[in-house]
Recover the amino acids of this structure.
């Protein structure tokens, strides 16, 4: 029997298989992690633009005969189309059509979500329902809150065509010692000169009155809006509290943990247990 005190994250994601003799080499040259020499069964990694901007957060599940690419955040069709375009005729690499996969992970409020290995079940797996029914699963709202507390970036929110993985606290998903990969030059430059301009932060507001019709997502040093210090990227309402994620300019992070939002009033910002910075 499963320990009912433990809590679990269950969600289904788009996935596709990569098969062939050159499958590992192919993914190694596209993603930020060391795919060739990893001994882990599952690797979390990033797919970047040539300029180092995060396009997708993915997991690679190592199976006996193939690799499964699980899209945690990103545009699945865009990823598959790009991957297919860069397969050379000489490459022994075949991509499958996308399919849904059920992903289960134990959660811990005090450590990063990336410290726990997930397990996967295909939809047609008969064992899935039996296994799932034994678990203490987070409901939808609690899962959203936990993801915010972990600063897990969402597609079109934090993964918006502007932010790199180091700004999003995903430094541990970038292998700075591996060979060439998409976006490597930018990643090395940022690391070597510690030139992060902004960092992701959790924020919360206890204001009872807020105006979601206001379009100003900027954060300021005060209610007079003298200086813009960053931008809200996502939010959710939890009981009497509003919380979310924001990208904050580094030079203002040491000046205090209180900022002002025209929508949410006075807010408090904190680091996340899921974020690792330079």
């Amino acid at each position: 029997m499963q320990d009912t005190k433990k809590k679990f994250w269950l969600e289904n994601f788009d996935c596709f298989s990569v098969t062939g003799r050159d499958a590992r080499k192919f993914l190694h040259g596209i993603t930020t992690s060391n795919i060739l020499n990893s001994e882990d069964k599952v690797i979390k990694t990033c797919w970047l633009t040539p300029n180092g901007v995060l396009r997708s957060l993915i997991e690679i599940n190592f199976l006996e005969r193939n690799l499964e690419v699980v899209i945690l955040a990103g545009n699945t069709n865009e990823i598959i189309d790009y991957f297919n375009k860069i397969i050379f005729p000489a490459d022994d690499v075949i991509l499958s059509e996308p399919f849904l996969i059920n992903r289960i992970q134990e959660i811990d409020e005090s450590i990063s979500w990336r410290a726990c290995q997930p397990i996967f079940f295909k939809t047609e797996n008969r064992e899935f329902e039996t296994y799932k029914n034994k678990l203490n699963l987070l409901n939808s709202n609690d899962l959203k809150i936990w993801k915010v507390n972990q600063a897990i970036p969402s597609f079109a929110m934090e993964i918006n065509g502007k932010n790199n993985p180091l700004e999003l606290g995903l430094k541990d998903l970038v292998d700075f010692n591996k060979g060439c990969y998409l976006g490597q030059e930018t990643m090395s430059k940022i690391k070597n000169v510690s030139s992060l301009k902004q960092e992701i932060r959790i924020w919360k507001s206890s204001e009872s009155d807020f105006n979601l019709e206001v379009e100003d997502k900027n954060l300021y040093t005060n209610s007079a809006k003298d200086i813009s210090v960053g931008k809200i990227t996502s939010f959710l309402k939890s009981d009497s509290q509003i919380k979310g994620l924001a990208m904050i300019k580094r030079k203002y992070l040491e000046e205090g943990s209180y900022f002002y939002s025209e929508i949410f009033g006075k807010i408090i910002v904190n680091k996340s247990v899921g974020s690792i910075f330079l």
